[in-house]
Amino acid sequence: MTTLRPVTATRYVTPLREGGSLPGLVEADDLGTYVVKFTGAGQGPKALVAEIVAGGLGRHLGLRVPELVVVELDPVVARSEPDWEVQELLARSGGPNLGMDFLPGALGFDPVVHSVDADEASRVLWFDALVENVDRSWRNPNLLRWHRELWLIDHGACLYFHHSWPRAAAAVARPYDASGHVLAPFATRRTEADAALTPLVTPAVLEDVVAGVPDAWLDDPAFATPDDARTAYVDHLLARTAAEGWRP
Ligand SMILES: Nc1ncnc2c1ncn2[C@@H]1O[C@H](COP(=O)(O)OP(=O)(O)O)[C@@H](O)[C@H]1O
Ligand SMILES: [Mg+2]
Fold first, then answer.
1. Which of 20, 23, 48, 200 has CA atoms 20 to 30 A from the CA of 142?
2. Where are the beta strands (DSSP E) in the chain?
3. Per-residue pLDDT at 173
4. Which atom of ligand 1 is nearest to the CA of 104?
């Protein structure tokens, strides 16, 4: 089982105000720069779990998702922060937070300007349907162009099923509405994407992905232990992969 690479925050650089998750740019002790989603941001640990489980699965499927790390934050970092809002956010976020490798100079993907290969678009759509990603719309694509390639970010709204475990089993084959998906018009090789990606969603891959989630974020009352929660994510995603009805 693989945990995510741990790093320690050394400096808060700037907020990246966009959605509701108050991400910020942070430098760490490995001299890396990360886009960090803080546990104190108020959207709850499930958004961070979704980033790791969906993002990690995407990486295993060969999609470009920047590396995910666990960013350890000592709240003393807040002291040198002039903005009181940021100060409070950091003070509430001591311990592990979620980091994504920052892609410097990346551009937001624009479907009018940038073209996407049909195979790649079909694979991204397939992946988003599997993890029920509602955040890949025209208005809010959460795709970046970097070094002329497409990168996937922001998987916090995936895995809708984990917000209600008692109802999760009934939602295993829930259809995915691809009509607003930014890459749907480019995704003309869906059968081929399904054939290529289905065999890659294995128990070993999913176990590896859920191992990266810190125990502290898996405290759902539906489970006695964090490992029980991990098993439930693996079982749900395997069952969905085997099910019909959701495929785009
Ligand atoms: N790894 C990254 N590299 C470069 N820019 C990023 C990265 N991740 C996020 N961003 C920028 O920050 C914005 C907000 O990040 P995102 O993960 O989409 O959070 P939110 O939940 O606020 O939508 C993105 O739209 C993008 O402009
Ligand atoms: Mg976003």
1. 200
2. 5-15, 24-28, 33-37, 68-73, 95-101, 107-108, 143-146, 149-152
3. 98
4. 4
Atom 23 of ligand 1 has which residue's CA nearest to it? Answer: 19
Token reading at 245: 């009805």
Whether this model's pTM surpasses 0.85: yes
Q: How far does the centroid of ligand 2 lie from the alpha carbon of residue 224, in Å?
A: 32
Closest residue (by CA) to atom 18 of ligand 1? 154
User: Strand order in 143-146's β-sheet?
Assistant: 107-108, 143-146, 149-152
Predicted confidence at residue 179, as pLDDT, reads 95
User: From atom 22 of ligand 1, which residue's Cα is the shortest distance away?
Assistant: 19
pLDDT, mean of each 10-residue run, the chain (248 residues): 89 84 94 97 94 98 98 92 92 97 97 95 98 96 97 97 97 97 98 98 98 97 98 98 97
Other CB atoms within 10 A of residue 134 CB: 14
Ligand 1 pocket check for 32: Cβ under 6 Å: no
Ligand positioned closest to the Cα atom of 35: 1
Closest ligand to the CA of 140: 2
